[in-house]
Write a structure and sequence with these properties.
2 copies of one chain form a homodimer.
Chain A: E1 6-11, H1 24-34, E2 44-48, H2 49-55, E3 59-61, H3 69-78, H4 82-90, E4 92-99, E5 102-107, E6 112-114, E7 130-132, H5 138-153, E8 158-165, E9 174-181, E10 186-188, E11 204-206, H6 207-216, E12 228-232
Parallel strand pairs in A: 2-8
Antiparallel strand pairs in A: 1-12, 2-12, 3-7, 4-5, 5-6, 8-9, 10-11
């Protein structure tokens, strides 16, 4: 059995604004304890990409960015700031689509979406206009958080680094997992039988993205300052699957029908 | 404030197999009560598409399907049963991509995905090989369920009809909302400010798909027979938004960059 009958999603409000070098485990745990709770073995801790990127110093001053010729041309075509386009290109492996205001990119991590995760909302601009990049290696960031919780508390948790993603045919963002550690990311039922004994052909379930989406239902998108959610009651690892990374989610390029 | 601090996802196990004409409200409520629970005002009831389709008699005997010339040609190209291809074409408005074993279609409801929702798993085939189609109008099905709960119990619930969907660049299915009633489907923060007072440009949150994904984490995909999940603790309607339908999720055709 790979399912559970019930689980809970618990937001962690009241965290301070995160800055480069901050100890996320310590800050989150301190606040969660102040709320009368703590991490438990089996919890999956969901961290908004934004606080992970900030703590890892991925904030870039636009004044420090020198746009290439390619970036300037693309910026004119899409009516965007050439310095932002330079950052987007430097974070990406492929441009998939463009139109005024929009660049659909394949990020070097394999993620396909608007603007390669380069974002200007909910970051400070006191010292000049800024942008925030995705973590260099979100799976490693998740693993590090997981290992530090194990070392400091002696409890085994799963960790997901969540981001908001658009999709080509559906309006509105959903949560996706861009980093993961300690959990089954893809739950593979292929080759199993359905409840009438008929072979299941295509049932590979993306648990990590579903958990990220559940987390975003309590995470704030604007001023709510709730960049952390704890999932309690879901198994970390299901069936005979293993712990996996979010990098495994990327569909191989040779199976991409929409390049 | 449009967020909540915590919510719970409760699976409803032990339902009987659903057949055409079954009273879903009665069957689910009876079973949920047998488990010591009941629907409460503010709950969002998530129903797997499969049980809604079955109760609405959307099961088709393949022996009754006569493939058109177009269906036979496409079946040969993609190595599929011509009768299934006929059903897929009859449910669709547009073929987006094809390769052996795969047809990516735009369903007449606007949903883009493999095989227009025509599925052969977890349905009975005692009287010959069968396929199950999506409900004719899933938003209306959700509305009907919601209204019947209000009439019979006097409680106001939200309803989502969930399906599993693939995405072009990410492996593994997630839950999506193909029908909805009584909830805010798209939570619009566009035009608001971020926590530093900067205007938010693109934050439209798809709550319905996120709730559907949360629900699928307890819903079974194979033999678990858990086609219903109750979300408790999330507001039905957020901010100054209204009740919406799942049809609103479809990105307008003229904004589709990946046709």
């Amino acid at each position: 059995m790979s399912s559970t009958n019930r689980f809970e999603v618990i937001g962690v409000p009241g965290l301070p604004l995160i800055e480069a070098g901050d100890d996320l485990v310590d800050l989150i745990l301190t606040q969660f304890r102040a709320l009368g709770n703590s991490f438990q073995s089996g919890d999956t801790i969901c961290l908004a990409q934004k606080i992970v990127s900030k703590s890892e110093g991925r904030r870039v001053l636009l004044a420090d960015v020198i746009p290439s010729e390619e970036a300037r041309t693309l910026a004119t075509e899409t009516d965007k700031d050439p310095r932002l386009v330079e950052l987007i290109l430097s974070e990406s492996s492929e441009l998939l689509r463009k139109k005024p205001g929009v660049l659909i990119m394949r990020h070097r991590l394999g993620l396909v979406g608007a603007h390669a995760g380069v974002d200007q909302s909910n970051i400070g601009h006191e010292d000049g206009e800024c942008a925030l990049l995705l973590p260099v290696d979100p799976d490693a960031s998740a693993r590090k958080f997981r290992d530090e919780v194990a070392t400091r508390l002696g409890v085994q948790v799963g960790v997901i680094i969540t981001d908001s993603a658009n999709r080509p045919w559906r309006l509105g963002t959903i949560g996706v997992a861009i980093g993961a550690a300690g959990i089954t990311v893809l739950d593979d039922h292929r080759g199993g039988n359905d409840m009438y004994g008929r072979e299941l052909k295509v049932t590979l379930i993306n648990r990590a993205d579903a958990i990220a989406s559940a987390a975003t239902l309590v995470m704030g998108e604007t001023t709510e300052q709730m960049p952390v959610a704890v999932i309690r009651g879901l198994p970390l690892v299901v069936g005979d699957a293993e712990e996996q990374t979010a990098a495994m989610i990327n569909r191989p390029l040779d199976e991409d029908l929409f390049r």
